[in-house]
Design brief:
It contains four helices and no strands. By secondary structure, the chain is mainly α.
């Protein structure tokens, strides 16, 4: 169940960053409200997850998935750049979170 909580917490960060972008564009109170609710729920589920998963592992996965999701949301919905360099560094985050090992 802790991994499910961690997954939900990552969505709190992804949507929180999306609501920051929407708030900065439109300056409407509703986006600020959603921003606060999203981050609050994300931190709540992160706190539940670290009861069973070590803090170092949970934080690394939460921040990696959240950063990756936030970048993808920016590219898909806010017309942000999807340059080769950006995709390269995004793939580095994903590889780091997954823990891919190259056997050589």
């Amino acid at each position: 169940m802790a991994w499910f909580y961690l997954f939900i917490a990552s969505f709190g960060e992804i949507f929180g960053m999306t609501f920051i972008n929407l708030y900065l564009q439109k300056r409407r109170f509703i986006w600020l409200f959603f921003l606060i609710v999203s981050f609050s729920l994300g931190f709540f589920f992160l706190a539940l997850a670290i009861k069973d998963i070590s803090l170092g592992v949970a934080y690394a996965i939460w921040s990696g998935v959240g950063a990756t999701g936030s970048v993808l949301m920016g590219i898909l919905f806010f017309k942000e750049s999807a340059s080769t360099k950006r995709m390269l560094f995004l793939s580095c985050i994903i590889i780091g979170v997954v823990g891919l090992r190259i056997v050589g």
